């Protein structure tokens, strides 16, 4: 029996395959993970029910296994209060680089062959999608 922050075998196996500069997408419940992800990516479905497993919880647990050097977020409208973005920034290390991409550019990046892992969350908040660039150990 594993004594770790993550017990999901497919997720653990996929994390083990991620190296420096690999991309990991945590997708909200509105994101089409099949059509807007790399064809070679492993998709792990953690979206059992709306808001059951939110993106911040997933990010918090991932950070016990990987270092993140960059976080790419989908840009939200100027008049939108993106509360989840603030949660991500509280969880990620201070030195994390941030980048915001418009929707189509975000989709193009997520479809990159560098995206090896896609995690479908139950997060219902809008603009909760985040692409993590794995850092060095």
Automatic annotation (TrEMBL):
It catalyses: alpha-L-fucose = beta-L-fucose; beta-D-ribopyranose = beta-D-ribofuranose. Keywords: Isomerase. The keyword Magnesium does not apply. InterPro entries: RbsD-like_sf, RbsD/FucU_mutarotase, RbsD_FucU. The keyword Repressor does not apply. It comes from the Bacteria. This is RbsD/FucU transporter. One of its GO terms (biological process) is fucose metabolic process. It holds the Pfam family RbsD_FucU. Coiled coil: none annotated. GO terms for molecular function: D-ribose pyranase activity; fucose binding; L-fucose mutarotase activity.
């Amino acid at each position: 029996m594993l004594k770790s922050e993550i017990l999901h075998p497919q997720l653990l196996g996929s994390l083990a395959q991620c190296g420096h500069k690999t991309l990991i997408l945590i997708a909200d419940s509105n994101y089409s993970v099949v059509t807007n992800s790399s064809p070679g990516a492993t998709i792990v479905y953690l979206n059992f029910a709306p808001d059951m497993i939110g993106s911040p919880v997933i990010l918090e647990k991932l950070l016990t296994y990987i270092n993140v050097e960059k976080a790419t977020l989908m840009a939200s409208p100027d008049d939108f209060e993106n509360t989840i973005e603030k949660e991500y920034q509280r969880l990620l290390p201070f030195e994390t680089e941030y980048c915001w991409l418009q929707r189509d550019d975000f989709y193009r990046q997520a479809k990159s062959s560098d995206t090896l892992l896609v995690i479908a969350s139950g997060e219902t908040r809008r603009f909760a999608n985040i692409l993590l660039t794995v850092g060095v150990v």
